[in-house]
Amino acid sequence: MADRLIINKEHLKSFLRKISKKHELIAPVKTSGGDTLLEVIHSVDEVIFDLKSKPVMPAKNFFFPRSETIFKYQRKGKHYKFDEILDNTPRILFGLRSCDLWGILFLDMIFQENFKDRYYLNRRINSVLINIGCNEPMKNCFCRSTKSGPFLTHGFDLQLTDLGDRFFVEIGRPRGREIVEEWNYFFSPATTKDREHQYEMVLEAESRFHQIVDMDTAVSRLMNDEVDDRVWDELGNRCQNCGGCAYVCPTCYCFNIVDIPFSETEGERKRIHDSCTFTGFTRLAGGYNPRHEKKRRIRRRFYHKLYYENKKHRRPSCVGCGRCVEICFGRVDMINFIKMVCEQGERSSRETSLRLGEILIEAGLLNREELKKALERQAGTGESLGTQLINEGLITREGVARALGYQLKIPENAGTGGSSGK
Amino acid sequence: MENRAQVLLRKMVANVYLPHTASIKRIKEETRDIKTFILCFKEEELRDKFTFRPGQFVLVSVFNCGEAPISISSSPEIAAELQLSIKKAGLLTGEIHGYKEGDEIGLRGPYGNGFPLEELYGRNILFVGGGIGLAPLRSLIQHVFAKKSDFGKITILYGARTPEDIVFKEDLNRWSKEDDAEVLTTVDMGDSRWKGNTGPVTHLWEKIEISPLNTKAVICGPPVMIPYVVFDLLKMGFAEEDIISTLERNMKCGVGKCGHCTLGSKFTCIDGPVFTYNEMKELPFLL
User: How confident is the model at residue A349 (pLDDT cuts 50, 70, 90)?
Assistant: First the structure.
């Protein structure tokens, strides 16, 4: 069978009805409130082919659910046991946007590297991904800048292009071919004219973006530590810790693991989505929190998505879907961040002193007058400044340790490793 | 129903999130708030298969309390008898402190990089421990004594708050009797019966002889101790890569996915928790 096919729009629903017999079908539907959502389809008539709206939530939720039970546990007497729960449902995701599909490809990488994630992979290897290229980028779409749309060149099982009365169908991965071969009577080979028509749609779509951002400049400014502190201050002030950006992001994969007790004898362990902008995300058992300041968490978020992922996986973990732009009422979103970074002036200097006395003053533990007097007395005793200050009762041992740690660039809370307790 | 690919996946890829049941064989009370649990896996096969490096940790599941990362405090030579020394600090550790012999917990791991053994061979080793920080060091110390001919002189400095807070008393005593080894203990506050050293561990430098050029220093202890020790070691002439310590971060998955323990582009759970001082210095530890 050829790699480029045509399916008439009037046949599409019958095709979907056929494939939904063996698979759970996930496709876009419109709610009574007017939102578009990706949902499990019970009747093919619910499916919408409207290219003007994008599902509110990303497709990652079908492979990495917002909340999933990973096992149940029981205690009988002294005995404690675990029963694994795996989801084996075969699924077809139809009508994905290129950005969402690209997001899944990104997660494939994350959940396969180092330790493999059975829960994710088990769902993923039993699924088929069918995307529809976007003829008309929406208001906040910027996938051209992230190179993840509006049409893909690989990674899909099937990719559809709307050509008016028909869909142009490209076969990508083997699962796509299997399906087309099984239901081959719905398809006919694409003509040269169809191919030209499709190519025109791609070019036109690419010229219609409302949002173009300079991802490369943003990445390079982060890499060279050239982002001005004022950017972080401002974004930190505007962020409301709601975590919305992470929940709607097709590539955010941070999670929490919690026990949900049912009774004195049983319960279940869940994995639930989490967000690096939440206050408690990095808090330790003793209360110490390396990212207690909001601006540090915002900094972490953008550094991770744009720079660290680029360093590790050669691509930023942003697919240009624009969902964070839509959800964030503080405008702490990707488009705004990149614009702020590109438009900032010269980075203000932040030379920090590495002398113990100055660090103590900056931390508010000592004033300049006290320091001057202590230095004079220190000259007489020959003790180190830290010891001198502790002996005189001006500062506690903990205070000096913190300043010394800062001076030596030792992460706070070093030394206890692994045995954090809970 | 599983499809063919899923059957293969099940056979080839272990479920890293699923704990293995282990039962508590013995419990040793170290101090009023620290207990050592001697554990044994229920699955017989695992008792031989489970191996680890000193400095690695496991995720401990306690019924209805979730999981917590705890570093292994016993030697890899006796992997069939895993020991965890746990300080009562919160919900999970509080619950396990109420457990009796025969009670069961869940374990998964081992995780983390562990101490860089290859770099320690042939060198003198200076261990500096404070409080419960001696637990991960104990695993390495026992391993070093088991293979003593591979290492040079061993010096162990240990500081605790009071004489009652000293952990692994018998071990400290035994180690001090080993050949080519020296053990010094100090407490912040002594009592009427305490005849030993008082003051921070850094006060013990004068009582020992170390050659900074051929010694690796391994440090674990409370955050207040680390900067003082590192500062003094650098002043003595230790190279930055010869100073080794560990980092603590909030951890959930232990397998480099959940994002809680990240330090820049690194994960404490897979790239750490053990870092040399020159590595630590370069970590964007607030990111």
Answer: low
CB-based contact, A414 to chain B, within 8 Å: yes
A354 part of contact set with chain B, CB < 8 Å: no
Sheet arrangement for strand A255-261: A79-84, A67-76, A266-273, A255-261
Query: What residues contact residue B48 under an 8 Å CB cut-off, 6+ apart?
Result: B80
Q: Are A330 and A239 in contact (CB under 8 A)?
A: yes
B212 and B287 within one domain: no
Half-sphere exposure of A383 (CA within 13 A, CB side): 14
A44 and A160 within one domain: yes
pLDDT single digits (tens) A372-396: 888 888 888 878 888 888 888 888 8
For chain B, give the mean pLDDT: 93
| Domain identity same for B222 and B259 | no
Residue of B nearest to A86 (CA): B2
Residue B155 lies in a domain: yes
Q: Which domain holds residue A302?
A: 215-251+279-343
Residues B23 and B65 occupy one common structural domain = yes
Interval B77-89 mean pLDDT: 89
**Chain A residues lying within 8 Å of B104, measured CB to CB:** 75, 78-80
Residue B60 belongs to some domain of the structure:
yes
**Cβ–Cβ < 8 Å for B26, B38:** yes
State the CATH number of the domain containing residue B161.
Answer: 3.40.50.80
Domain final residue pick, A189, A206, A223: A206
DSSP secondary-structure letter at B265? T
C-beta neighbour count of B98 within 10 angstroms: 9
Q: For residues A208-215, give the mean pLDDT.
A: 92
Tell me the shortest Cα–Cα distance from B93 to chain A, in angstroms.
Answer: 6
Nearest partner of B271 among B283, B281, A331, judged by Cα: B283
Q: Of A43-57, A162-176, B119-133, which range is least confident?
A: A43-57
- Looking at CA atoms only, how far is residue A419 from chain B in angstroms? 4
The CA distance from B139 to A183, in Å, is 62
Chain A partners within 8 Å of B255 (Cβ) = 114-115, 117
Please count the structural domains in chain A.
3
| Chain A: residue whose CA lies nearest to B234 | A408
Pair (A237, A122) in one structural domain: no
pLDDT band for position B287 (cuts 50, 70, 90): low
- Does residue A62 contact residue A49 with C-beta atoms inside 8 Å? no
Q: How many CB pairs under 8 A join A and B?
A: 265
Are A118 and A128 contacting, i.e. CB atoms less than 8 angstroms apart?
Answer: no
Of the candidates A88, A261, A299, the beta carbon closest to that of B64 is on: A261
Picking from A140, A135, A99, A133, the residue whose alpha carbon sits closest to that of residue A322 is A140
| Domain that residue B252 falls in | 247-287
